[in-house]
Amino acid sequence: MLMKNLSILPVVGLALLAAGCQSEPSAPAAALGSIDTVALKRAYAGETEGKAVSIYFLRNAAQMQVAITNFGGRVVALQVPGKDGKPTDVVTGYNNLKDYLSQPEAYFGAIIGRYGNRIARGKFQLDGTTYQLAVNNGVNALHGGPKGFHNQVWDASQPDAHTLVLNYISKDGEEGYPGNLSVQVTYRLSEDNQLRIDYEATTDKKTIVNLTNHSYFNLNGDGDSTILDHVLTINADKFTPVDSTLIPTGILQDVKGTPFDFTTAKAIGKDIGASDAQLKNGLGYDHNFVLKPVATAGLREAAVVYSPNTGIQLTVLTTEPAIQFYSGNFLDGTLQGKSGKKYMHRSAFCLETQHYPDAPNQPSFPSTTLEPGKKYQTSTVYAFGKH
């Protein structure tokens, strides 16, 4: 990947940025509104494969701020106040663009597409035609392939301090997917600490689409050693069991009586060490949870998680039918984050709203097919509060 005139500003959490890039490890809450966005954009500006890379900030009066780069639409930092008012950066990431470019496989904070999650052996059929995708996860395709949306520079516009709009055109045949796909992803930060992500896409040829965001969270703060103390509820009575390559078997299994029962709040670490074939396959939780059906369309509560330590609570709402809960099983201490600490085993979790994995090969699953003249449209909200 070619890089030209790349000037990097370390992003060691938004607290440091709010202090005007001084050397202090953190900034008081009162300083949160003092970010010099223009200076930071200039310092972070660069160019990759002929396209400009920048960093953008969303902020509100409630002392929440979000930093997003148009390289992969990645949420680089997300700062919210805890129960003591202390600003806490709750997402993982790197402190420079160079690390995002050289170590993209963790997908930290990125837009995932064209197809989030796995497709068995990287193959699917549409109208009798077999399409072969890039295989990048054992024998399977994962998260759109190595040159998926997480590795693209998106066109960005920021109409106001609360909104960032990203656009990307995925060309016919990119990573094996059919059709020219025009994608728009809009981030909006509300005054009540809700980060909303709206996804839209259209195509000129029948294709498949399943978009999501792959932020890794630790509500104790970025770089904390564990998320096993976090208390989680998932609004799902069923999940989709997987084989040894993490492809769904096609069965919808009841969570009741299994370690996958998060219908009432429990610590993530409570059952993660249980003797269970599914936990063995995923090396922990890395499974698609089928959200309970609702009578009306629109946003519904998918999951709630909080940290007893900081009191920060995250509620995930979505229009999608499912959510992938991943407990950071493949983090192994080899990646060093923006805090200077290494990301250890199960030191972050993901809650990825989605359609089901491998849906193009499983007719009983909700369809992920998009046809010309139709619009793909989904929304997800990450709402932050205090427990």
Automatic annotation (TrEMBL):
EC number of the protein: 5.1.3.3
SUPFAM superfamilies listed in its UniProt record: Galactose mutarotase-like (SSF74650)
Signal sequence range: 1-23
Keywords assigned: Calcium, Carbohydrate metabolism, Isomerase, Signal
Pfam family name, one: Aldose_epim
Record keyword Oxidoreductase present: no
Annotated pathway: Carbohydrate metabolism; hexose metabolism
Cofactor(s) for this UniProt protein: Ca(2+)
Xref: InterPro entries: Ald1_epimerase_CS, Aldose_1-epimerase, Aldose_1/G6P_1-epimerase, Gal_mutarotase_sf_dom, Galactose_mutarotase-like, GH-type_carb-bd
Reactions performed catalytically: alpha-D-glucose = beta-D-glucose
Top-level EC class as recorded in UniProt: isomerase
PANTHER family (alphabetical): ALDOSE-1-EPIMERASE (PTHR10091), GALACTOSE MUTAROTASE (PTHR10091:SF0)
Protein family per UniProt: Belongs to the aldose epimerase family.
Subunit comment: Monomer.
Name of the molecule in the record: Aldose 1-epimerase
Organism listed in the record: Sediminibacterium roseum
